[in-house]
């Protein structure tokens, strides 16, 4: 299969602000050549009419089962109980898999061509990934299966499996490896919804011994480890234990910054759940007073942490934490806008973080994450220049995944959530 995308204004995913007018020659899913006004022989030509073409976005932190609708029982509460009840049997798991597939297709139609799933129920993400890898249309998925946590830790009783001793932790890691996961996900600290004290959304839950047991075991078998980590003390435990990606984050110390660099660890910024929960009134978020306080607290900590990380030149990836309240599967573009508004990152660099940097954190930047010869044709096209306004990423006019074209993609949106978020974004 050979396709020629003519007249593309290319934003390549690097820190390159120059938009170049190019024709992209795609064969067997790969961009084999980029030129201008060369031979079209043997190619099926699509005129892009000078639309902006950039790498598909990569979402490094998503839970693929949820819609982002806020509920009274937060932290996956009501949703969690429903999922656990429904998925107790095989037909239930088929329902869950269909929901997950619908969600990742919605993300794909919104321009997200790669997603790392970091906590599922009953390996639904693994099954959906396998179906896509076997030829079903969909985004690239890298999945962790269920997260691994300790008793009362984050995810206990929902998207995580629970162990205590180092041997149990390693057995849980092996169980996930047996199911062919791509990453190992752990939860070193608690979260906003399971905190019991003000100012403690990131209470350290897992011990250094537990963390290290998992990281050593995973690394010895070629797997990387991501950790839900929402406090400075938690980051210390996670890095000491050998974690590769610190999810969410918090304020950093000079010593921690040095440790990130020494260990080549990355910070995965997820402002998408923090912004609405910290900025919308309680009636809308349905948070109780403690959770509202801790949301604001965590928002400030995370924002400071990502500013520090960027200033220090750490590797900063982006994810949305989709399925959290007010975080839809199709909202990756908002994470770029939050990074722009809250950390002062220029639009071209926001795109760079969401594409090339995220691909490098996955260890896959040789294969995708930029618009370059030899890379996968994972692309999104938009009519107006996203370097002038990142909101222009909201509705792609075309998405390409491994050379397969989705023309006029259709995103199923939640109008109510979008309206609330648009209001919040105006005030940032
Ligand atoms: Zn998460």
Could you describe the 3D structure shown?
The protein contains 13 helices and 17 strands. With 428 residues, the protein is an alpha/beta fold. It folds into two domains: 113 residues, Urease, subunit C, domain 1, CATH 2.30.40; 305 residues, Metal-dependent hydrolases (TIM Barrel, Alpha-Beta Barrel), CATH 3.20.20. The strands form four sheets. The protein has a seven-stranded mixed beta sheet, with no helix packed on it. It has a five-stranded parallel beta sheet with strand order 10-11-12-13-14. The protein has a three-stranded parallel beta sheet with strand order 5-6-7. Helix 2 packs across helix 3, helix 4 runs parallel beside helix 5 and helix 11 packs across helix 12. The protein is globular. About 1% of the residues have low confidence. The site of zinc ion has 6 residues, from loops.
Comma- or semicolon-separated keywords:
binds zinc ion; seven-stranded mixed β-sheet; Urease, subunit C, domain 1; five-stranded parallel β-sheet; 13 helices; alpha/beta; 17 strands
Average of the residue pLDDT scores: 95
Radius of gyration from the alpha-carbon trace, in angstroms: 21 Å
* Uncertain residue segments: 73-77
CATH topology of the largest domain: TIM Barrel
The quaternary state of the protein chains shown equals single chain
CATH homologous superfamily caption of the largest domain: Metal-dependent hydrolases
C-alpha end-to-end distance: 45 Å
Characterize the largest beta sheet: strand count, sense, and whether it forms a barrel.
Answer: 7 strands, mixed
Q: Report the bound ligands by name, code or SMILES.
A: zinc ion
């Amino acid at each position: 299969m050979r396709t020629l995308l003519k007249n593309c204004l290319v934003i390549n995913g690097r820190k390159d602000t120059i938009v170049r007018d190019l024709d992209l020659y795609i064969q067997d899913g790969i961009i084999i050549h980029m030129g201008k006004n060369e031979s079209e022989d043997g190619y099926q030509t699509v005129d892009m009419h000078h639309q902006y073409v950039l790498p598909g976005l990569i979402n490094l932190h998503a839970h693929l089962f949820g819609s982002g609708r806020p509920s009274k029982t937060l932290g996956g509460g009501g949703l969690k109980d429903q999922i656990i009840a429904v998925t107790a049997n095989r037909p239930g798991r088929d329902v869950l898999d269909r929901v997950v597939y619908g969600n990742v297709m919605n993300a794909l139609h919104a321009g997200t061509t790669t997603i790392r799933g970091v906590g599922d129920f009953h390996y639904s993400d693994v099954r959906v990934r396998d179906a896509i890898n076997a030829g079903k249309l969909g985004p690239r998925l890298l999945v962790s299966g269920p997260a691994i946590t300790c008793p009362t830790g984050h995810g206990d009783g929902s998207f995580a499996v629970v162990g205590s001793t180092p041997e149990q932790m390693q057995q849980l890691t092996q169980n996930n490896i047996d199911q062919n996961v791509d990453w190992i996900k752990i939860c070193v600290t608690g979260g906003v919804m399971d905190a019991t004290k003000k100012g403690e959304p990131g209470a350290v839950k897992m011990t250094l011994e537990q963390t290290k047991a998992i990281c050593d075991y995973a690394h010895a078998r070629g797997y990387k480890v991501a950790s839900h980590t929402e406090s400075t003390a938690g980051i210390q435990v996670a890095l000491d234990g050998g974690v590769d990606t610190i999810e969410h984050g918090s304020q950093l110390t000079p010593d921690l910054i040095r440790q990130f660099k020494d260990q080549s660890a990355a910070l995965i910024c997820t402002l998408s759940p923090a912004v609405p929960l910290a900025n919308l009134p309680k009636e809308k978020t349905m948070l109780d007073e403690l959770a509202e306080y801790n949301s604001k607290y965590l928002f400030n900590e995370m924002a400071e942490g990502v500013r520090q990380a960027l200033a220090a030149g750490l590797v900063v990836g982006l994810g949305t934490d989709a399925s959290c309240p007010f975080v839809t599967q199709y909202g990756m573009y908002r994470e770029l806008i939050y990074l722009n508004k809250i950390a002062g990152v220029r639009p071209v660099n926001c795109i760079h973080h969401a594409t090339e940097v995220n691909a490098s954190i996955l260890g896959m930047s040789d294969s995708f994450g930029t618009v370059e010869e030899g890379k996968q044709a994972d692309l999104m096209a938009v009519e107006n220049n996203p370097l002038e306004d990142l909101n222009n990423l909201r509705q792609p006019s075309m998405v390409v995944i491994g050379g397969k074209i989705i023309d006029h993609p259709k995103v199923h949106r939640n109008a109510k959530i979008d309206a609330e978020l648009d209001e919040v974004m105006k005030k940032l």
